[in-house]
Each structure stands twice: as structure tokens, then as C-alpha cells.
Amino acid sequence: GQNLRIVIEGNPVMRSIIVSSFAVLAAVAAVSVTPASAQISITHGGGNVNVAKGALSEADQSATTLGGLAKGHGVAITNGGNNRNIASGPLSFAGQDTTTLGGTALGHGLSVTSGGYNSNIAKGFGSAATQSTLTLGGTAYGHGKSFTSGGYNSNLAGGAFSSANQQVATVGGTASRYGLNSVSGGMNKNAALGFGSSASQSVFTGGQ
Predict the structure, then answer these.
(1) pTM of the predicted model, to two decimals?
(2) Residue 29: enclosing H or E segment and its boundaries?
């Protein structure tokens, strides 16, 4: 099979979930020209680590993972989560954007998509932490099963003037007639610790 992984780095401003959605649609249009074909398609784009240390540190990380296509009782497994982004220093800033699009399994297939388990941490005086996670489930045709997990994310800002913001959107995949569609997007943690700290969290979980 052929898998595609796109990693975008160096963006100082976090993309919103809406912008990430447009990026996914554009990537899907590109992939549809030459789709991947295999009995088992495994795409692993997660497990990335980004660390910035120092008084004026800044860390930005953006990862996009697109699942492949498995035919004939196929299995499509897409893992774009488990990313770590850390900024440590008096004026640290940490930003992370993770987008995962599940693959497609045809003929009594199984599609498993995991985009969660991301960690974003900013430590230090005046720290700020921002995280955006978008997980779109895959598609299973012909009595198929689609499992989508985008939760279990943690976002932490620790410092006197810390600020933490987290956006998590998990949209279930598609299972055709007589299929099974399972979606999980919860168990997220968002915290701001320190004098003058603030924390906000937005979580959306829905099916198709």
C-alpha cells in the first residue's frame, strides 16, 4: 500500500479547527488521484516530539496524517496522535495542531482511526499553551466497522501569567449498511496553574 504523511512546521499561529478542516479537504482531493490499495493499510504519522527550552522559548508543531485504502475484507489503521509539544522557559509559548483523517476499508472491512493522546505543555513565567486536535473517522463499506478515537488530550500552562486553550473535535467515520460506527472523543484535560492563570476548553464529538 501507499501511505501519505504531511507534516507542517514553523507556523507561529495556531490554525483553528475550521481551517484544519479545509486543509484536510484539500489533502483528500490530492490523495484521491492516486489512492493507496492494499489488503492491510497502516498509516502512522503520530509520535512526534517538539521541545523548546530557554528564556524566550517558542515551540510550534503541526502534523497531518491521512489514512490509506484497504480492499477486500481489508483493514485500514490510521494513527496520527500521541504527539508531544513542550516549551520551557520564563516567556515560553507552546502551540500544537494535529489533524488525523482515517482510511477506507472495503468489503467487510475495518477502519480504525486514532488522533488523540496528544500533550501540549508550556512551563515558565508568562507561559501560554494552545492545542487544536481534529480527528475524522474513516469509512468501512460492506458490513464494515469504523472506530474513531480523538480524545485523551492534555493541555497545561504552568506559570504566573499562564494561559491554556484547547480545542478538540472528533467526528465519527462512516459504516455502510449493517455496519458498526463507534466514536470516542472525551477524557480531555485542560489546566492553567499560576497567579492570574486562565483555562478554556472546547470539545465536540459527533457521528455521521
Answers:
(1) 0.80
(2) helix 17-31
